[in-house]
# Entry
Amino acid sequence: MQHTSTLYRVIFSGICILLTATTLSIYAGYLQGYLTLHYSFWLELGMVCGQLLFQALWLLKSSWQRIVQYWGQLLTVSLIGSVLLWPYIGLRQWLQLPALSALCWFFAVVAIMFLEHRRRVARLSLPAYLSYTWIGYRLLILAFII
# Structure
């Protein structure tokens, strides 16, 4: 039973990582005017995987099982964020929307994700600072791409 659970967790994690990287690389195209480098699927894939490693640093005293459990929650929040970006991506297929609207939608989604991340961290009885290091990682990356 444990092997099956681990297999499902790995498959779910892979799906979350790929969908998040794909969605954000598409969405970044709407924000390219604000970015200093070309944003691609591979860049986002590296950032998603980097986020997992960065967050694990803050949990080094925890068990491997606890870190993996947190990663599952982190990836679920990322998947939720991706799904919340899909309506805007869909609208862009039919409407000419300004880049500023993409930026506003993106930050609204990030706010929702932050609140959901905080809720999940509290539910797992993990340190609250994980929500701030989660945002801190993305702000650090943002400093390099804008």
Remarks:
- Residues 25 and 41 are 5 Å apart (CA to CA).
- The chain has a mean pLDDT of 91.
